[in-house]
Amino acid sequence: MNRRELLAGGVNMVAAAALSSRARADAAGLMVRRIPSSGEELPVIGLGTSGPFEVGTAAAQRAPLAEVLQAFFECGGRLIDTSPMYSTAEAVLGELLTPDMHSRAFLATKVWTRGERSGIEQMTHSGEALKSARLDLIQVHNLLDLDTQLKTLHEWRASGRVRYLGVTHYTVSAHADLARVLMRERLDFVQFNYSPVTRAAESRLLPLAAERGVAVLVNRPFEDGALLHAVRGRPLPGWAADLGATSWGQLALKFIASHPAVTCVIPATGSVAHLNDNMGAARGALPDHGQREAIARAFA
What whole-number distance in Å separates Cα of residue 271 and Cα of residue 186? Predict the structure, then answer.
């Protein structure tokens, strides 16, 4: 690439980032971003199911999760991320989603197995567990048996069994592998870890996703709880009010969502109070560059 091509590419990237970063508010007042491959809009905060939704059949275990889902959709939420590797999460989610919730939900699950037959069986079971004839997104989890599973997913998308396809990982050590896949494949989504204290994705993955027109889902936004534990008991910075943030959790989520390549952040929770706090990050202002750096310093 010569200097002129490099400069032109940089201008295009800046223009794309500026367009993406102007997240508009939807009817529920939530900031939304577009899926690059389709233009479909999603709220910038979704819901993860790893951990909290891995419960048994007891009513006492499931009732709080039904309340979380009710609050999620009342807030205007759409994207829920799950996986067959999250023990009972798919089945629990499928049992708790009402027909009205199903009509509004964007259901994202994963395939995590080896072999074509096993992949087809697992994805078919996911659809049955989630009570959905057509899933919105299936992702190859941790890049396991990638070529085999992507081949099936492309066939499923062509036949209408799934709307979008993607890949996932959850560690910085896998970012280089994800980047190689993004360069090689035409994907709709990529999912990886990113937070105010784990910013490795900024150097390559996030710009590459923007360049390739791939939607980004962010996992582990709270560093499995360690991020919030580190600031527990500390007063919120006064400037947080400028962003409409009322908690440390909202500051962290706003930091992540403010990157123009990020489409949706998927914190997992089984608490209505935490769910409402998380969804609050999709309202108000997103931080600019200076405010992003202030947030990162506050958590460091």
Answer: 37
DSSP category for residue 287: P
For the chain, what's the residue count? 300
Interval 163-198: pLDDT, tens:
999 999 999 999 999 999 999 999 999 999 999 999
Give the separation between CA 71 and CA 276, rounded to whole angstroms.
Answer: 7
How many Å apart are CA 190 and CA 84, to the nearest integer?
Answer: 18
CA–CA dist 48, 209 (Å, integer): 21
Q: pTM of whole model > 0.85? A: yes
Per-residue confidence at 265, pLDDT binned at 50, 70, 90?
very high
Tokens representing 148 are 């085999």
The domain ranges of the chain are 34-299
* Cβ neighbours, 10 Å, residue 73: 20
Name the fold adopted by 34-299.
TIM Barrel (3.20.20)
